[in-house]
Amino acid sequence: MIDIETFTSEARQWLDENAKLRSTNDEGQREPKWGEGEFSVAVFHNLSFEEEKAIITDAMKWTQRKAEVGYHKITWEPEYGGMGLTKEHEKAFFKLESEYDTPGGHETHSVTTHLMAPSIRLLGTDQQKKDWVHKWAGAQEMCCQLFSEPSAGSDLASVATKADKDGDEWILNGQKVWSSGAQFSEWGMAVCRSDSDLPKHKGITVFIIPMDAPGVEIRQIRQMSGGTSFNEVFLTDVRVPDTYRIGDIGEGWKVALTVLGFERGSSNGSSRVGGNWAQAKSLAEHLNLTDDPVVRDQLARLYSQYRIMVLNTQRVVAQTKAGQAPGPEGSISKMIWVKSMNLMSDVITKILGPRITADTGEWGTYEWNEHLLGAPGYRIAGGSDEIQRNIVGERVLGLPGEPRVDKNIPYKDVLK
Ligand SMILES: Cc1cc2nc3c(=O)[nH]c(=O)nc-3n(C[C@H](O)[C@H](O)[C@H](O)COP(=O)(O)OP(=O)(O)OC[C@H]3O[C@@H](n4cnc5c(N)ncnc54)[C@H](O)[C@@H]3O)c2cc1C
């Protein structure tokens, strides 16, 4: 296996050829320079369809370029387009990559590459793996998550979207909601009810749906942060072949849990959404507030919180082997990340005061408004804070489970 030093030097050469090194500030660090360039700390985009599509296309192109070499999935086996190397190689690449100007991320891109591709790699049939893993991991196409419904969010096992078998096909009917990026996706993974006579967790089956199939209707939802990255997705007599079923009939709950595990595990602050500690510090410096004892105290809290997040991410990375199904530790990562992001909003709001609600035109100030309005969303997405605490309580601390009155009752008899 290639040693880290040689790997790093080859990766550096590749990055030099494919991206521009970010400029350094006066102290020689690659931190943002106050007043220069585009400033965005948005958690969700507030853009038109075309503008948001352009962001996704840029992110896809960068991943596609990395996928030509295998830098997009360094620890994966070569048969799935990876390099078959270690987490240390991957870490070394991420560190190097962060020194370069590369396209920013997007939720849909991240759902496809970090949730959907690994889940199919773990649970798909040989044909499904051949059809989708490389394509999705390498961001050639996008796949959204059609899990939540109006009456099934935290209690996802209550999904009502019906899946009826008809020969070699299934007919799907129902409504999904909060489906991020459905309007930009070629595919969707839908959690459906295939048997209402069984208790709720047992009659679920998961399917991949082509988003342009007849009967799929996507309606965008306007968010408080301005944009429309979420959708309602209505499924009316949508036909999918049985070969698009993921896992066994009635075993969809395991599939959903695997995807959610990847979601929690990947929500660890490694993405670039929502600003960073260095930007918060620059703001306080620019406003001459770093001698203010209250601001200093808040910045110290923020810094500590971000350090905890980094250390926890390192712990999870060290614990998980490549490809292994993620465990409940993903819930801890998610909670720490969300707490860090929301603390950032609190601290910045105190530092900026009225500037966060009134645009003075001053660079790098009012833009934090987009952070403030977006950060709470991640307290809910991928399982709310309360649900993460339940998981940690039950599966890490071994506390008694929540009372579940509908546990052994057929789904059709559960009070709705
Ligand atoms: C930014 C964002 C992106 C999203 N993207 C997607 C997506 O791409 N695809 C998708 O399918 N869904 C998506 N969702 C939906 C998300 O998964 C659900 O919103 C989430 O699971 C919560 O479900 P709910 O909204 O129905 O709230 P509910 O489940 O109705 O919860 C309401 C409140 O009750 C609390 N609560 C519920 N049950 C319990 C319990 N047992 N113990 C303690 N408290 C409880 C919750 O914590 C919450 O505070 C997204 C949501 C957000 C905010």
Brief digest:
Helices cover 41% and strands 13% of the residues.
The number of E-state strands comes to 10
Estimate nothing, just give the exact number of structural domains: 3
The fold-level CATH name of the largest domain is: Butyryl-CoA Dehydrogenase, subunit A, domain 3
Q: What is the CA-based Rg, rounded?
A: 22 Å
* Average pLDDT number: 92
- Per DSSP, the total helix count is 11
Query: Would you state the CATH class of the largest domain?
Result: Mainly Alpha
CATH architecture name of the largest domain: Up-down Bundle
Overall shape: globular
Give the distance, in angstroms, between the N- and C-terminal Cα atoms: 56 Å
Largest sheet: 4 strands, mixed
User: What strand line-up does the widest sheet have?
Assistant: 3-6-7-10
Percent in strands: 5-15%
Helix and strand content put the structural class at alpha+beta
Query: Helix and strand string, N-terminal first?
Result: HEHHEHHEEEEEEEEHHHHHH
Q: Which percent range fits the helix content?
A: 40-55%
CATH superfamily of the largest domain: Butyryl-CoA Dehydrogenase, subunit A, domain 3
